Amino acid sequence: YEKRRDLQYTVNYFDKDDNSVIKTAKTVENKRFKDVITSASEVVDIPGYNYDSANVESITIGTNAEANVINLYYTKRNDLSYVVNHLDKADGTLIHDPTGADNQVFASQITSANEKLEIFGYDYDSADPNVLTISADNNSNVINLYYTKKTFDYTVYYLDEDTNEEIETRVENS
After folding, report:
1. For residue range 106-138, what is the model confidence (pLDDT) as tens digits?
2. Is the separation of the CB atoms in 86 and 95 below 8 Å?
3. Rounded distance, CA 54 to CA 145, Å?
């Protein structure tokens, strides 16, 4: 007799916090009866996550496919960051040093308007994007906030050079 070679096992990838599926399950076919599969050999990199644990250290392939399962658990990365650029809407120039935050959790959401600053001479206008979802790539975690220059009214007094008397008064704005 020869051992069966038509068996399979499945590896599931879950978020440890809520048991949601974070990667499509992997099914490996044509395995031999009594083969031993270790959980450690099935760990893969999943963007935004760190491997945490498994439900079993290993499985021994049997004829019951439901028992030939490894569940791997991952936690969301919490070492991510984002940057906020404060830009003049008219020409895109930076009008304030960039701000942002470190130690952000993968897939968390940042409401861009909450990142606006009071910048002298400018009014907040808009954001791109309106909501940032933290990705595994820090270079993609960027919010651009746009500001418009404030206008100010001012009065210009024109005086006679010799008498210093007011000749004309004009209200203008910038």
Report:
1. 999 999 999 999 999 999 999 999 999 999 999
2. yes
3. 43
Residue 60 in tokens: 């021994």
Please write down the long-range contacts of 109-118, taking CB distance under 8 Å and 24 or more positions apart: 109/133, 109/134, 110/82, 110/134, 110/143, 112/84, 112/143, 112/145, 115/84, 115/143, 115/145, 116/145, 117/86, 117/145
- For residue range 88-107, list pLDDT tens digits in order: 999 999 999 999 999 999 99
pLDDT tens digits, 141-170: 999 999 999 988 888 888 888 998 888 888
**What would the two tokens of residue 88 be?**
């003049």
Q: Which residues pair with 147 in a beta bridge?
A: 88, 124
What does the alpha-carbon distance between residue 115 and residue 124 come to, in Å, rounded to a whole number? Answer: 10
Do residues 33 and 62 touch, judged by C-beta distance below 8 A? yes
pTM metric for this prediction: 0.78
Compute the distance between CA of residue 69 and CA of residue 12 in angstroms, rounded to an integer.
8
